[in-house]
Amino acid sequence: GEVYDQLLSKIRQIKSARDPNNPLILSFERYMWDSRVHSWSRFLSARKGNVPEAMTMIQGHERWRNDFFPIDLTDPNLQRVLRAHAVSEVDIGEDDKAAVVYIDFSKLQQMVGTDENSLLNVVQAFVIYTETLLSRSPDPRSPKTSQFIDLTGVNLKQGFRVNLLKKLYRTFEPNYPETLERMVLYPVPKALVSVVNAMLGFVNEHTRK
């Protein structure tokens, strides 16, 4: 198929270049990053080695996947979030750093209503980018991503939609354990420091560390 043709083209390109600084290295992995073979260790670590709790967690994740997917990419409300780049990807240009999911929080607050469907579209966009970036991880046994939450333009007068972050976190934490390299909220105005610290109270201690 197309992927196989791209692989062959890349192999030919590297071989013909004969660049000692860019040698041809082939690594074949039978299982994808989200297969049980690779994901089990992450769920087990998230539950600190407790096998029954890890089993419960991974079973809950599998039920969530069955209910959540497939995502209708033609949904006009989801398209609106994606076209506005309210949730998108940031290429930091460093191969040894995890890819970054970018969240423009001010833009989301302006776009998203209080209804569940509106929040669902944001979660869908977030999951699309999270899944895409994790699938690109060079090592499917230890996929990583980072999150940058841009608070530019967010102020107390505008309000702070904590429910938005809670919704994203409550989707990410039980379904993508041990895949977050770092989460950055920036810039945080002085007036919002206490609000942000209180807000992060819903993040479990293991993840915060």
Give a brief rundown of this model.
With 209 residues, the protein is an alpha/beta fold. The protein has 9 helices and 4 strands; from the N terminus they run ααααββααβαβαα. Helix content is 52%, strand content 11%.
Question: What key attributes describe this structure?
Answer:
9 helices; 4 strands; 52% helix
Q: Report the strand count.
A: 4
- Write down the Rg: 19 Å
Total helix count? 9
Briefly note the structural class of the backbone: alpha/beta
Terminal CA distance reads 43 Å
Spatial sequence of strands, sheet with the most strands = 1-2-3-4
Order of helices and strands: HHHHEEHHEHEHH
Unreliably modeled segments: none
Q: What is the global morphology?
A: globular
Percent strand: 5-15%
Task: Classify the helix fraction into a percent range.
Answer: 40-55%
Largest sheet: 4 strands, mixed
Look at the structure and give the mean pLDDT: 86
How does this structure look, described?
A hairpin with an 8-residue loop joins strand 1 (87-90) and strand 2. This protein is 52% helix and 11% strand. The chain has a four-stranded mixed β-sheet. The chain has helices at residues 2-17, 36-46, 51-68, 76-83, 105-111, 116-135, 162-175, 190-199, 205-208; strands at 87-90, 99-104, 145-150, 180-186. The model has no long low-confidence stretch (mean pLDDT 86). The protein is built from nine helices and four strands, in the order ααααββααβαβαα. Helix 2 packs across helix 3 (51-68). With 209 residues, the protein is of the alpha/beta class. It is globular, with a radius of gyration of 19 Å.
